[in-house]
Write a structure and sequence with these properties.
heterotetramer, A: about 80 residues, Ubiquitin-like (UB roll), five-stranded mixed β-sheet, 2 helices, globular, B: about 170 residues, five-stranded antiparallel β-sheet, 9 strands, about 30% strand
Chain lengths: ~80, ~170, ~170, ~80
């Protein structure tokens, strides 16, 4: 199974209780990976979540490859 | 030269300003976001900023480049604080210089608007009453399961809300 | 508290900024006009500002008050330099603080636009080629009799142009 | 005849060669006073001149009274 590196920030980091993890997964898209992890962690509900793959914003249906780094991005609040 | 940066410590405003001065520029517009003592009806004590820095720097640089191209300004820069901030502290600074004032005002406004929407920075507010919360995330959570950090599923986003952002 | 002032000497930007800080303000927008090295195709060496100070202060205060009322900002101030300035010097500074950024941007823009149009300040530019001229006055004079300081009458403004401003 | 105090600034000050003067005049309006002085000094031509009486912007046909202070205001160029 492909191995994916996942980093957590802000509300997700606090909820999951860690900054990052490695996951061997059958999920073939970012959205499927999210659903898998949501099943495990029961993420807090929020609208407007985005996702980045290898430090670039990405679509939820973008394909994942072995070694990819994925970050789920809760609604931002800079400034 | 980097146009967008994060800083864990309070910057020198004079140093920031000097980075956009230019003999050909006649106008300078600066925006500063300050930590204010209230937000959405709550009394704020202090706050924390956290960023996904690798993507944040890339996105910040893109925003600066877009502003420079759209408005033809001479120089433009942005700095966003990370870490713990108190009331009155500088949270974000944008500085733009240009030949004339119209493009400096427009570019400065463009940069701060885009930074707030696009750069992955999160703000956790600590309130006078002892409560705290992640701005924007909290409001969304309230509409869902009612509990900020333990959505009980069903009414929240996961598949549905995530789907909104696909494509 | 005075919102508009003239200064014969270079002000401290940090002092100016501190005059508009406020715990309730989350946004700060500043405009600075700098002496640039060119204007209308001429290489500028230095310049002088002169004001009709009594009327200028009154008009400046009115502009600040208008901006505060229109946009509901927290604090707003403006300082305009007088006397001799070199390239890069600060000619005018406007600082506005408010709860949110939209009103700070609008009020700051309003103040500088109105100050430039309404406050009786005149600028004499000294050029690299040794020439000099009063900005705006010179251009108008060129359309008239052709000589800047000795209009020969007939084609100039006196009765006609003055009439435009009556009523 | 009413006595009027006149101050000159910028291009007019340089042209007239003085900052201020007192004038006894039959001119009853700011516009008439300007024309009288233009006849004497041949002011530089410019559009958009304004006038202030007692440190307030005024109409050119505003009446003058003994002791008034008048300033002709060439096009401004602040900032």
């Amino acid at each position: 199974m492909p191995q994916i590196h996942i980093e957590y920030f802000a509300i997700l980091r606090e909820h999951v209780g860690k900054n990052a993890e490695e996951l061997n997964t059958d999920a073939t898209t970012a959205g499927a990976l999210f659903d898998e992890l949501d099943g495990r962690y029961n993420f807090p509900r929020m609208a407007g979540m985005k996702v980045a793959i290898n430090a670039e914003f990405s679509d939820w249906d973008a394909a994942l490859a072995d070694g990819d780094s994925v970050v789920f991005i809760p609604p931002v609040a800079g400034g | 030269m980097s146009g967008f940066e994060f800083s864990q410590t309070a910057p020198s405003l004079e140093t920031l300003r000097l980075r956009v001065t230019d003999r050909t520029a006649g106008a300078y517009v600066a925006f500063e976001g300050w930590v204010r003592d209230h937000n959405e009806g709550q009394q704020v004590l202090r706050l924390e900023y956290e960023a996904y820095e690798e993507l944040g720097l890339r996105e910040g640089e893109r925003i600066i480049a877009e502003a420079a191209e759209r408005y033809g300004v001479t120089r433009a820069r942005c700095l966003h604080r990370l870490g713990e901030l108190e009331i009155g502290d500088l949270a974000v600074w944008v500085g733009v210089s240009s030949a004339h004032r119209d493009e400096a005002f427009k570019a400065c406004r463009y940069i701060i608007d885009e930074v707030k929407h696009r750069v992955p920075i999160w703000k956790k507010e600590h309130y006078v009453d002892g409560d705290s919360g992640w701005v924007n995330c909290e409001r969304c959570a309230e509409k869902g399961s009612g509990s900020l950090l333990s959505g009980s599923g069903g009414s929240g986003f996961s598949r549905d809300s995530a789907a909104k952002n696909r494509g």
